[in-house]
Amino acid sequence: MKELSLNILDIAQNSIRARATNVDIILKEDAETLTITVSDNGCGMKADFLKRVTDPFSTTRTTRKVGLGLPFFKMEAEMTGGSLDITSKSEEEHEDHGTVVTARFFKNHIDYIPLGNIIDTVCTLIHGAEEVDFLFLHEYGERSVMLSTREMREMLGDEVPLSSPEVLAWAREYLTEGYAELYR
Ligand SMILES: Nc1ncnc2c1ncn2[C@@H]1O[C@H](COP(=O)(O)OP(=O)(O)O)[C@@H](O)[C@H]1O
Ligand SMILES: [Mg+2]
To answer: Looking at ligand 1, which residue's alpha carbon is closest to its atom 4?
Structure first.
């Protein structure tokens, strides 16, 4: 993919498809590395499936026969000298089920793909999954940008849906200002 933000969208959509009600997207960045963690409380994966999930033919989708999100994300991390790890607990076997995907990139490697439009990714997720709570946090050195839909809901009350155009415009503006500060 041309932008890591599109990989993040894909990985978070896996969480939504896994019926997660909480999805945390955490980016930790410094001058050399970017570590992306997407964690959820969805249905999880059983151990034998988990072992195969980063090869391109593992999917529980019925719309096409190959899953590509995780294998691509892994390849893109490894191309920079980084890595991808997944831990998961399936709902059949664990009360505290869910999945954690962690990818580490070396930003100064020639094959590093830029993060791209992460604000679009966050807004698309909020817009598309009204019932899901997202926590987005991007730390860059000492600074950070954070958006929590739970906090937004508390502020807005029950009347205003998160996917309303005004709320999304506000979120976009808030993140844009946050990023201007982050990379200052
Ligand atoms: N967060 C998750 N929770 C539960 N299952 C997941 C999660 N992420 C991926 N999976 C499983 O791994 C499969 C492969 O994912 P992926 O590589 O993104 O391909 P695709 O989404 O196209 O199937 C999914 O079909 C799903 O069964
Ligand atoms: Mg996917």
So the answer is: 44
Distance of CA 181 to the CA centre of its chain: 22
Other residues' Cβ atoms within 10 Å of the Cβ of residue 135: 16
Average pLDDT over residues 103-122: 97
Q: Which residues line the pocket of ligand 1, CB cutoff 6 A? A: 10, 14-15, 18, 40, 42-45, 53, 58-61, 67-71, 99
The pLDDT, as a whole number, for residue 57 is 67
* Ligand 1, atom 7: closest residue by C-alpha: 14
The pLDDT score that the predictor gives to residue 65 is 55
* Fold that domain 4-182 belongs to in CATH: Heat Shock Protein 90 (3.30.565)
Cα–Cα distances (Å) from 2 to 7, 23, 116, 130, in that order, read 9, 23, 8, 27
Measured between alpha carbons, how far is 61 from 150 in angstroms, rounded to an integer?
A: 29
pTM given for the model: 0.94
Contacts of 94 (CB under 8 A, 6+ apart): 44
Sign of CA dihedral 14, 18, 23, 27: negative
